[in-house]
Design goal:
By secondary structure, the protein is α+β, with helices and mostly antiparallel strands. 62% of the residues lie in helices and 9% in strands. It has three domains: 284 residues, no CATH class; 60 residues; 43 residues, no CATH class. A hairpin with a 5-residue loop joins strand 3 and strand 4. The two termini are 32 Å apart.
């Protein structure tokens, strides 16, 4: 179904060289964060350099007007400047993605994104659950359950894990929303995946963002035409988000109302008030050294890193982008943009190096649409911008096979296998852990700490993150919390899910093979 709308004649897709270069660039950059690489790692920097090289090749083989070259050059210089001043690659990466968008299909980008992101997430989750590539772990008191171990499954924070999954949901919904027969099953799978991810992340902001995403996608899907007040609200959303992020915390004062709202938002409002009270704000950014707390708000993060002038320009760009999407009736794009702008109030991923803000793809396309009627004067190696034909036969055959599959039967077999595995195959204590020591810096729980003088190699003991005599630990057992029981439960659920998926795939393939053999013999 994702091939519909992009398939050419004779079941072949036609892709130009400059378009192909961008898809490779996008896949390489997505890979870096899809597998949880850190911004400072050598592999991350190497992939980014490869992406910049691919972008340069795209400009060489493409055709650009003087206005396009000037604007792309100015944005590129600004992106490099922000990296030089702040040390963060976030805006530079987003500029690379935006200025490379000329003559590139957004739908094909989402096909590439869905493929790369799903493979990377599958690797990260599998490596974390079964091979110990856990990433950052925290212990917090959540939802009245007492202390729970929050896992990031290979990423930099449990909240990042959930936002990573939200991006996968965006890719899938964008491609499937117009397919009425498939969207129900897609939504069911995404909701189950959301529950699975929440089981590890315990991210309230992740769940809230997921809910907003579903609501907005189906709202914009149903709305064929927007009223005047809807248009005003949508276009003004960036400004509303800025007001909520900056003005609202200041307006609350320091009373009981502020304490209640601040607790709901996990001290985010306190961090914003402290930032504006103690740290300077510049016109062109540079960041403030010595900040020992997190700015979990994309808009405040942008003001701190990039300055007031670029921040105003970014806000204006989003207002104009929303206006353009309304005018062109790009409803799915509106759903993605509005969801991400809303999520930026409680998460910093819009403008940092997390590479999850794919709305910059829409900004790039919008930029080139505005100036596309200019005469192309830069076409240095455009004669090499050949078109390639890629056969869709495999995709078409796969689609037919999937369409003919009795998914209810497959789901029933897989569900049965998963339930039986959970109930019968695994002992009560499958992880074999009896006590957990957690570094106090990674724990937000109301209890006493202990300091260890030696670390005997005792079976069933876990240290998070390291064993050291210089660290105060929180100590958890079966008797003083449900933390270990929850760890054991979700590991058994993970094992059951993987068994269910494997059995479902084997059943589907085996049934196809049996049917083909039966028809041949008959």
């Amino acid at each position: 179904m994702i091939l519909e709308g992009i398939r050419m004649e004779d079941n072949k897709v036609q892709v130009s060289l400059e378009e192909l270069l961008y898809y490779i660039l996008f896949a390489v950059i997505l890979f870096t964060k899809g597998v949880g690489l850190d911004e400072g790692s050598l592999l991350f920097r190497g992939c980014l350099m490869l992406g910049v090289l691919l972008l340069a090749c795209k400009f060489l083989v493409g055709q650009y007007s003087m206005a396009e070259i000037i604007i792309a050059g100015v944005l590129g210089i600004w992106g490099a400047f922000t990296f030089k001043v702040t040390g963060s690659l976030g805006m530079f990466i987003y500029v690379v993605l935006a200025i490379g968008m000329k003559n590139v299909s957004v739908k094909r980008i989402f096909v590439v994104g869905t493929t790369v992101w799903s493979i990377c997430m599958f690797y990260s989750v599998t490596a974390a659950v079964f091979w110990g590539r856990t990433g950052v772990r925290r212990v917090d008191e959540k939802f009245g359950m007492g202390p729970v171990l929050r896992e990031s499954l290979g990423y930099t924070h449990p909240n990042v894990l959930h936002i990573t999954y939200v991006l996968l949901m965006v890719f899938a919904l964008y491609l499937c929303i117009n397919h009425k027969k498939k969207i129900f099953y897609t939504v069911c799978l995404l909701l189950l995946g959301n529950l699975y991810v929440f089981m590890y992340s315990f991210s309230s902001t992740g769940v809230l963002t997921s809910a907003v995403l579903f609501i907005l996608f189906f709202y914009f899907y149903k709305r064929r035409k927007f009223s005047l007040w809807e248009t005003g609200i949508i276009q003004g959303l960036p400004i509303v988000c800025v007001i909520i992020s900056i003005v609202f915390p200041m307006a609350l004062g320091n009373g009981i109302l502020f304490e209640i709202v601040n607790k709901i938002f996990n001290s985010r409002l306190w961090a914003i008030k402290v930032f504006f009270a103690l740290y300077d704000i510049s016109l062109f950014g540079g960041g403030n050294e010595g900040i020992d707390f997190s700015l979990d708000n994309s808009y405040v993060y942008a003001i701190n890193e990039y300055g007031v002038i670029p921040f105003i320009m970014l806000t204006a760009a989003y207002v104009l982008l929303l206006r353009y999407c309304i005018k062109k009736n790009l409803r799915m794009e509106l759903a993605v943009i509005c969801t991400f702008l809303f999520a930026g109030i409680s998460e910093p991923f819009l403008f940092n190096a997390s590479i999850k803000n794919i709305t910059f793809i829409f900004l790039g396309e919008f930029l080139y649409r505005v100036i596309e009627n200019e005469k192309c004067v830069f076409k240095l190696l455009s004669r090499y911008n050949k078109c390639f034909l890629f056969s869709c036969d495999f995709g078409i055959k796969l689609k037919k096979r999937l369409s003919s599959t009795r998914w209810k039967m497959v789901a029933g077999v897989a569900l049965t296998a998963g339930i039986l595995s959970f109930l019968l195959l695994f002992p009560k204590d499958v992880i074999g852990i009896n006590q957990v020591y957690v570094d106090e810096k990674l724990c937000d729980a109301a209890r006493d700490t202990v300091r260890l003088t030696e670390f005997p190699a005792v079976d069933g003991t876990m240290y998070i993150e390291n064993a050291s005599k210089d660290i105060n630990y929180y100590y958890f057992t079966h008797e003083n919390s449900q933390l270990i029981e929850l760890m054991d439960l979700r590991f058994k659920i993970s094992l059951s899910v993987y068994i269910a998926v494997a059995v479902g795939i084997l059943y589907m393939c085996g049934r196809k093979t049996f049917n083909q053999k039966f028809r041949t013999e008959k």
